[in-house]
Amino acid sequence: MITVILLILSNCFMTFAWYGHLKYGHAWPLWKAVLVSWCIALVEYCFAVPANRLGFGHFSGFQLKIIQEVVTITVFIVFAIAFLKEKLAWNYLVAFAFLGVAAFFAFAFRPSGPGA
After folding, report:
1. CA 21 to CA 15: how far, in whole Å?
2. Annotated domain spans of the chain
3. What is the pLDDT of residue 102?
4. What is the per-residue pLDDT across 33-66, written as a single tens digit (0 to 9) for each?
5. Between 2-19 and 61-82, two packed helices, what is the crossing angle to 10 degrees?
6. pLDDT confidence of residue 19
7. Residue 42, number of CB atoms within 10 A of its CB
8. In sequence order, which residues have a C-beta less than 8 Å from that of residue 116 and are 6 or more positions away?
9. CB–CB of 40/13 below 8 Å?
10. 92: exposed, middle or buried (C-beta count within 10 Å: 0-12, 13-18, 19+)?
11. Where are the alpha helices (DSSP H) in the chain?
12. Inter-residue contact 66 to 3 (CB < 8 Å)
């Protein structure tokens, strides 16, 4: 559970690092947007690295990445609606549902064979 919480925190920072300047940073020169984003991303890494370290062993590397992607999409949906004031269209919901199906398959079956 701590892994998921740290990944959520990590993705909140990364979403702002990648997309936050789209709302307020248009007047900024590109170098400033990159520098500010990089500073925010540094905090993101302070959560992401421990999340993956603590989670590896309980989860496989593949599962950690899939958890991270599901968390990223979930955080971005909230961010896009609340911060960027974008509308959530039906086709985006369908796309997110397919990602949910992918996550289901990643966790529903035990892998077999070498390295499993």
Report:
1. 10
2. 2-108
3. 86
4. 899 999 999 999 999 999 999 999 899 998 899 8
5. 50
6. 92
7. 11
8. 110
9. yes
10. middle
11. 2-19, 21-24, 30-55, 61-82, 90-108
12. no
The residue behind tokens 């035990």 is 110
pLDDT at 115 over 60: no
CB atoms near residue 51 (< 10 Å) = 24
Which three-class secondary structure state does DSSP give residue 50? helix
Task: Kindly indicate the confidence band of residue 111, based on its pLDDT and cuts at 50, 70 and 90.
Answer: low
Q: Which residue has the tokens 């369908």?
A: 94
pLDDT score, position 26: 80
- Residue type (1 letter), 30: L
CA angle 80, 81, 86 (to 5 degrees): 80
What global pTM score does this model have?
Answer: 0.81
